[in-house]
Amino acid sequence: MNALLFLLAAASALPEGVDAWVSVDPPVIPFHRQTAFSIAVEAPEGMEVELPRMVGKIGGLDIYGEPAFTTEPLDGGRKRITQTYVLDPIFAGVYPIEPVTITLNKTESIQIPAPAIQIRELTEAEEAEAMKFVPNAGPTDIERSLVQRWEVWVIAALAAAAVLFALLWYLRKKRFVKRLVPPPSPWDIAYARLRELDAKKWPQAGRYQPYYVELSSILRHYIEDRFTLHAPERTTPEFLTEASSSGLLSEDHQMLLGHFLRHCDRVKFAMFEPTIGDMERSFSEVLRFVDETVPTPATGEARAA
User: Fold this and answer.
1) What three-state secondary structure class fits 189?
2) Residues 230-258: what's their mean pLDDT?
3) Are 264 and 130 in contact (CB under 8 A)?
4) What CATH number matches the domain at 176-304, 3.40.50, 2.40.50, 1.20.120, 1.10.287?
């Protein structure tokens, strides 16, 4: 079974017309996957049902995002209320969940025992899949899209300059000049975040866990903004597969990403303790990737900044 379902142990404890249960789907997962813990109650339409907030009560597991809450009508004047938490484990182990207390009409409470969630180590097949990297079989020279052609940028710049000149001429009569500030580019944002991370001196302080979390976040968000690849919410194998098949990254950059992200996974999930040299090399790899993927017309300006 993919899901583990726990019903109320004593059926007599349930009021007439009320059904309640909790479920874990799936109940056993490797540490690099997610699972869902759900609370469900079926009751008459007019009954007031209050579900508990389980934050901090699910064995210490991290909760991904906000819990989902739904109410759906059923036949016979009944309704089903469901609350679902997506859990994001880091380390292997068994995580017990506290019993769930449900309140009916603000006066009556029922309690449901909850199962434990088992987070296991990777199997040999899963570890091989996580470490596997499929090189890009397609061509490395990609035809530039319309927005990447310098002619389009020149025409757009000339048109923008004409509009700006007309605007400034109009505003000069009123002795008011409004400065138009474009939004920061993905590489500008990445450079700024890298400077902030470097200023924190976390490698020297031995804070390698938050250092790698922040460094991988900078890289993943830059890739999403720069190449429209959904990096932040993907696992490392999923992202590397998508990057390989997209044709947007060169083989050298794909190999750089594969080495860096697998190193981050070792630090975050396998309790690997990197040296200061490891951390500095990881920083240099991210900086190199950003430097080499800045669009050509903006390369000089971006590096000068």
Assistant:
1) helix
2) 79
3) no
4) 1.20.120
